[in-house]
């Protein structure tokens, strides 16, 4: 692949294959199909909805995230994305981002948009919300690993001989969690290879 982003992968990259890792197992591991020693990991799903509105009709100008702490309704959080970065929308427009927890599989898109608009009318008033224009909805089945307690942040990355597991779903659903998990898996693999007689 080449273009304005440059050549990918760069020529100076060197790839090595390992006998310990024959192929990427993430899909089968996440599906709980990699055999004994692995428990199917529950996941968190989300729906992201986006709306546009004239920028002069945004009810809040601060770059803040609104959280639903009421325990009622379907909206988990929302924010005016262009309050964070005006470049997220064309000049004179604002981008509204709304997140729900779950997939609401049985609810059609149109009905879900209507429910969200009704709920956000309670938050910001009808005068503000009625001018929002629905843009798009994304139903994301695997948005984040389930992190409900108990969690084992120090889980051994060895699943069985030659199979190591790593990823944010092993430690914590953060970039740091993914990196820490990857490092632990590599360290375990290197340690195991050092003790194997060739």
Topology:
Blueprint: H1 26-30, E1 43-54, E2 65-67, E3 75-80, H2 81-84, E4 93-101, H3 109-124, H4 126-129, E5 133-145, E6 158-160, E7 163-164, H5 175-195
Antiparallel strand pairs: 1-4, 1-5, 2-3, 3-4, 6-7
Report on this structure.
This protein has 198 residues and is an alpha+beta fold. It has two domains: 26-42 and 149-195, no CATH class; 44-145, Polyamine Oxidase, Chain A, domain 2 (Alpha-Beta Complex), CATH 3.90.660.50. Helices cover 25% and strands 24% of the residues. It contains five helices and seven strands; from the N terminus they run αβββαβααβββα. The protein has helices at 26-30, 81-84, 109-124, 126-129, 175-195; strands at 43-54, 65-67, 75-80, 93-101, 133-145, 158-160, 163-164. Strands 2-3-4-1-5 form a five-stranded antiparallel sheet. Strands 6-7 form a two-stranded antiparallel ribbon. It starts with 25 loop residues before the first helix and ends with a helix. The model is unreliable at 1-6 and 20-24 (pLDDT under 50). GO terms for molecular function: oxidoreductase activity. Residues 67-190 form the Amine oxidase domain. This is Amine oxidase domain-containing protein. Pfam families: Amino_oxidase (PF01593).
Write a compact overview of the structure shown:
GO terms for molecular function: oxidoreductase activity. The chain is an alpha+beta fold and 198 residues long. Helix content is 25%, strand content 24%.
């Amino acid at each position: 692949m080449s273009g304005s982003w440059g050549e990918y992968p760069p020529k100076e990259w060197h790839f090595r294959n390992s006998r310990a890792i024959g192929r990427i197992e993430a899909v089968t591991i996440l599906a709980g199909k990699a055999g004994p020693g692995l428990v199917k990991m529950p996941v968190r799903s989300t729906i992201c909805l986006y709306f546009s509105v004239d920028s002069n009709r945004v009810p809040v100008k601060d770059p803040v995230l609104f959280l639903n702490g009421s325990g009622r309704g379907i909206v988990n959080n929302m924010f005016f994305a262009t309050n964070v970065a005006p470049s997220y929308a064309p000049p004179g427009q604002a981008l509204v981002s709304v997140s729900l927890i779950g997939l609401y599989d049985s609810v059609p898109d149109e009905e879900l948009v209507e429910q969200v608009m009704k709920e956000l009318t309670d938050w910001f008033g009808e005068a503000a919300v009625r001018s929002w224009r629905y843009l798009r909805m994304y139903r994301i089945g695997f948005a984040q690993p389930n992190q409900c307690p108990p969690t084992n942040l120090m889980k051994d990355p060895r699943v069985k001989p030659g199979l190591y597991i790593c990823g944010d779903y092993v430690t914590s659903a953060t970039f740091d969690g993914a990196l820490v998990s990857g490092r632990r898996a590599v360290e375990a693999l290197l340690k195991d290879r050092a003790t194997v007689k060739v």
